[in-house]
């Protein structure tokens, strides 16, 4: 029975492996301290391990060696400051504000530092809610966190090879979903702009997984295994290039509007290939099974026969059909290479020829310079830090002034996990947190009613793994699991006290309300940053065009430029996804959606030139082609970079593309025209 694609992310993936590795690490810390000093010491030490474990995300061993000690320092410092100010409400309130501000600034280090920011606040909340001697609890936080680090590093080393294989399988599934989104272009009457936005949103998810996969493969403890897997990434990106190139000259729209079934055939083929990629990802996960990818030559031959029957009176349709067939063949040939490069070092080395892999790993910066750069009023991160610290300070004051809020630290925890740096992300987290708390409290109440200590401990351990695993995949699940984990943990620390299930719901509602109110303080509406993101993307696209539109371009330079363009495009897509929920979004949404679609078509034209030269290089004269590319590069730069002064060439249609140079000339002219359209849209957006 085939697993539905939508369920893959819930059943298989690097995040699940990572989540249960974290649960195992926390369990081992608890067992160790429990054997030495009893159950209460075990639970306190496990709290420290849990704090540090928040930063234990899928990353290579070399990165975790740097990240986890930083997580420990941040958690211990936060807990110690709260412990030292215990008994002095005013001073402790000020400390909460300072910790919130610092935690908000920590995200300036990049996406990897978001868990660091959260665990800083988590250690603060745990210490505030700890019974008895706060300094003793802080000591347990420090010891438990320190004990977790070597366990986490050992588990990372032990799962290094399997972890990369799981990550590759997950990336292949993301690409399969990308193909399903691309298939929507070929439906009759499809809205080209709406379909493009779905593709871009999926591409953002693909890019996110791609960065993690690069890092895990480049810094592999086993270089041979890492080389094979990063070669698979390189081949997968070739297929990605081919799929982008199918968009050139709006070919899907031409096929979908034609009175033939060519578009339906492409749609069916893409869905079949996506299913085959899902099967390939399973092959990678099942020990002893050789990965395979089926032959689709029969479908391509049938497509060629359908092209031969087309009415030649419509040369643009004929050209779109032929180009689509050629690009699909390129994509399928690339995908068919994945099993070989995964299993053969020789094939992997061939795919990686001329590449310096270290250039492709995401950088890990921990200096104070990125934070110092954000200490300005117009910085979104600086304003987030102000909002977060103000919300936490208000929450603390409410707890201090309201004796009935006996478990009020849950209010601070709710604020910490909901309040994000962007308006829409906070709104989404608020709704997900409320849902998760209601469901989690109901589950915890049922488990407590059964009153079985072994069952409660097993449920809590499972909740630790689920909460960690799904933090970025589905926060609703994380919120449910986190509520179960916290309520069961409180009960296990003090079984004689009734677990405050009802009060947790009240505290969650209060915390969510405070997070929403302070989200309106100096709000960071995503739509305010769209112009800057558009400028950044156009700049990256210009760099990409500058590298690609040359006769001799190294594979290293091309792939680095492509990497930066994909990441910038993904940022554009993510901002669009969030900006749709902004107040007033209806005023700029249509123009922004057109900009993203046009950016995609412009990139497709440039990619097509690259593939045309690669596939027909023997039919092109180097001197004439280099001169044409120089002129085209200047024309495209005139559109994408301010200060250039070069008019785009006329886009004259050449019906006979049997001549390679004529085909290249047409592609070059189209690239300049698409770049000009992009410039006009970017200018209207204020970019």
Automatic annotation (TrEMBL):
Chief place where the protein resides: membrane
* Keyword annotations of the record: Cell membrane, Membrane, Transmembrane, Transmembrane helix
What's the domain of life for this entry? Answer: Bacteria
Q: Does the keyword Cell membrane apply?
A: yes
The compartments listed are: Cell membrane
Span of domain Integral membrane protein YccS N-terminal: 76-322
Topology relative to the lipid bilayer, per the entry, is: Multi-pass membrane protein
Instruction: Write down any Gene Ontology CC term.
Output: plasma membrane
The UniProt record lists the Integral membrane bound transporter domain at: 398-517
Pfam families noted in UniProt: FUSC-like (PF12805), FUSC_2 (PF13515)
Mind telling me which residue stretches traverse the membrane in this protein? 12-33, 67-84, 90-107, 112-129, 141-158, 385-404, 433-450
Q: Which family does it belong to?
A: Belongs to the YccS/YhfK family.
PANTHER family in the cross-refs: MULTIDRUG RESISTANCE PROTEIN MDTO (PTHR30509:SF9), P-HYDROXYBENZOIC ACID EFFLUX PUMP SUBUNIT-RELATED (PTHR30509)
For this entry, the protein name equals Uncharacterized protein
Organism of provenance = Rhodoblastus acidophilus
């Amino acid at each position: 029975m085939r697993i539905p694609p939508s369920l893959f992310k819930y059943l298989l993936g690097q995040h699940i492996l990572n989540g249960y590795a974290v649960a195992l690490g926390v369990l081992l810390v608890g067992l160790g301290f429990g054997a030495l000093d009893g159950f209460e010491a075990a639970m306190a030490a496990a709290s420290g391990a849990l704090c540090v474990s928040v930063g234990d995300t899928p990353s290579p061993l070399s990165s975790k060696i740097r990240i986890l000690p930083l997580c420990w320092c941040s958690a211990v410092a936060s807990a110690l400051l709260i412990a030292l100010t215990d008994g002095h409400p005013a001073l402790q309130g000020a400390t909460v504000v300072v910790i919130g501000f610092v935690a908000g600034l920590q995200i300036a280090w990049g996406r990897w530092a978001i868990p660091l920011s959260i665990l800083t606040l988590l250690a603060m909340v745990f210490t505030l809610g700890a019974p008895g001697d706060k300094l003793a609890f802080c000591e347990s936080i420090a010891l438990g966190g320190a004990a977790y680090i070597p366990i986490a590093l050992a588990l990372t080393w032990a799962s290094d090879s399997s972890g990369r294989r799981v990550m590759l399988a997950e990336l292949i599934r993301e690409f399969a979903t990308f193909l399903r989104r691309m298939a929507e272009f070929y439906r009759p009457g499809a809205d080209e702009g709406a379909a493009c936005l779905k593709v871009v949103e999926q591409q953002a998810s693909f890019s996110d997984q791609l960065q993690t996969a690069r890092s895990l493969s480049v810094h592999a403890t086993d270089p041979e295994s890492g080389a094979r897997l990063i070669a698979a990434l390189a081949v997968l990106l070739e297929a990605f290039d081919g799929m982008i190139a199918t968009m050139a000259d709006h070919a899907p729209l031409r096929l979908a509007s034609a009175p033939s079934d060519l578009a339906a055939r492409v749609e069916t083929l893409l869905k079949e290939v996506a299913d085959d990629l899902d099967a390939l990802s399973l092959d990678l996960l099942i020990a002893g099974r050789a990965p395979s990818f089926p032959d689709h030559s029969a479908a391509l031959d049938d497509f060629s026969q359908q092209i031969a029957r087309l009415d030649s009176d419509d040369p643009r349709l004929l050209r779109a059909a032929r180009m689509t067939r050629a690009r699909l063949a390129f994509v399928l040939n690339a995908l068919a290479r994945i099993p070989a490069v995964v299993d053969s070092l020789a094939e992997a080395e061939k795919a990686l020829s001329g590449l310096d892999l270290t250039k492709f790993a995401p950088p890990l910066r921990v200096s104070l310079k990125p934070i110092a750069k954000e200490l300005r009023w117009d910085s979104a991160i600086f304003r987030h830090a102000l909002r977060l610290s103000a919300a936490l300070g208000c929450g603390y004051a409410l707890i201090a002034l309201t004796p009935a809020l006996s478990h009020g630290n849950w209010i601070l925890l709710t604020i910490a996990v909901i309040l994000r740096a962007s308006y829409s992300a906070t709104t989404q987290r608020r709704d997900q947190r409320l849902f998760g708390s209601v469901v989690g409290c109901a589950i915890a109440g049922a488990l407590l009613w059964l009153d079985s200590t072994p069952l409660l401990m097993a449920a809590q351990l499972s909740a630790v793994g689920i909460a960690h695993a799904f933090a970025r995949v589905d926060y609703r699940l994380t919120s449910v699991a986190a509520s179960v984990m916290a309520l069961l943990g409180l009960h296990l620390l003090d079984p004689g006290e009734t677990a405050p299930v009802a009060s947790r719901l009240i505290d969650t509602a209060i915390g969510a309300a405070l997070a929403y109110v302070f989200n309106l303080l100096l709000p960071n509406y995503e739509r305010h940053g769209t112009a800057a993101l558009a400028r950044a993307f156009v700049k990256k696209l210009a760099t990409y065009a500058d590298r690609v539109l040359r006769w001799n371009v190294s594979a290293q330079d091309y792939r680095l430029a492509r990497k930066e363009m994909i990441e910038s495009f993904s940022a554009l897509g993510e901002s669009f996804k969030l900006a749709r929920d902004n107040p007033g979004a209806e005023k700029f949404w249509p123009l922004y959606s057109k900009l993203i679609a046009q950016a995609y078509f412009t990139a497709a034209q440039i990619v097509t030139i690259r593939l045309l030269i690669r596939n027909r290089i023997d039919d092109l004269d180097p001197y004439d082609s280099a001169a044409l590319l120089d002129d085209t590069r200047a024309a495209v730069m005139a559109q994408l970079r301010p200060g250039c002064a070069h008019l785009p060439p006329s886009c004259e249609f050449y019906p006979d593309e049997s001549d390679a140079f004529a085909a290249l000339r047409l592609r070059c002219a189209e690239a300049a025209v698409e770049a000009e359209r992009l410039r006009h849209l970017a200018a209207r957006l204020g970019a």
